[in-house]
Amino acid sequence: MELPSPQAEAPGPPLADPGEIPAARGEVARAAAGRVSVVPVTPDDDAPAAAGQPEQPARTAPAERTKGPVTLRRSQVTASTTDQRLLDTRGPSDWVHTDPWRVLRIQAEFVEGFGALAGLGHAVSIFGSARTSPGTPDYENAERLASLLAGRGYAVITGGGPGIMEAANKGACEAGGTSVGLGIELPFEQGMNQWVDIGIHFRYFFARKTMFVKYAQAFVVFPGGFGTFDELFEALTLVQTGKVTSFPVVLFGSDYWGGLVDWLRDHVLAEGKISPRDLELLHVVDDLEEAVAIVDAGIRGHNGGGAPAGWYPPVEV
């Protein structure tokens, strides 16, 4: 039986010259192209160069700046920060007309922070220097303390940067706890450390500070600089003035903090600038278990768990 010969495929319509495509079709094509995600092909750094071709030099990381949720690189990086522009009174007066937009941006930071941390549960904020190197006693103590706190069910909140912040986030993360980082836009970008589970970037310090205080029931403060002092005295002022419910502030390292406590007692308290109870808000410790015990007692008292009234012990250095 003879098979029928296959029919020849009908020729399609002739291809149009790209220059003759109507404008409407061109717009559709361009719109469709805009919806396509193109993934650049990155050469394998370990692959040998093709014969006859010179090896490509290693790429250096581009300059980078985080502004809120936006990451800028290379020529998009600017020297000023959002906080700096807000507080700069020397700028042109037409900036006054942009303040309503700043208010909306500030509101958005509070909304994002509240939304991300609303279900956090009991938490402890840990502060300290960003310049503390791994392997130092302060770094290792911060890591171990965060691990102990995470083991007792506390989330750990830090500024999300390097140094003491990284150590605390690492300790909490490796212990299976919740590790939170509250980053801030700075002229010298630090970036969020790799041990943060929940990271929030802030443009404004005051929005960031609110999250530290609102979602923590205790502060543990390791040796640090101006930023650490700022957080410490902000917390003490809020407690002293009744803006937040009294909670413990633990200063870890008597060698570092002893001079400050002596000055507060011998001068500030002696001259009547603060009351004895204000000084009793501080606990100077050198033992990790003691720090955890103070946190536990403070949170039990905060929740009405039977801790005696006025449980804060006198400061002893």
Element layout with pairings:
Layout: H1 23-34, E1 64-67, E2 70-73, H2 82-87, H3 99-117, E3 123-127, H4 137-151, E4 155-158, H5 164-174, E5 179-184, E6 198-202, H6 205-214, E7 218-221, H7 226-240, E8 249-252, H8 254-269, H9 276-279, E9 282-285, H10 288-302
Parallel strand pairs: 3-4, 3-7, 4-5, 5-6, 7-8, 8-9
Antiparallel strand pairs: 1-2
Helix pairs in contact: 3-6, 4-5, 4-10
What average pLDDT do the residues reach?
A: 79
How many E-type strands? Answer: 9
Using only CA atoms, what is the Rg? Answer: 29 Å
User: Number of helix segments?
Assistant: 10
Proportion of residues in β-strands = 5-15%
| CATH class term of the domain at 109-302 | Alpha Beta
Across the major sheet, the strand order is 6-5-4-3-7-8-9
Based on Cα principal axes, name the global outline.
globular
Q: Do you know the CATH topology of the domain at 109-302?
A: Rossmann fold
**Poorly predicted parts:** 1-49, 305-317
- Which structural class should the secondary elements be placed in? alpha/beta
Order of helices and strands: HEEHHEHEHEEHEHEHHEH
End-to-end span in angstroms? 109 Å
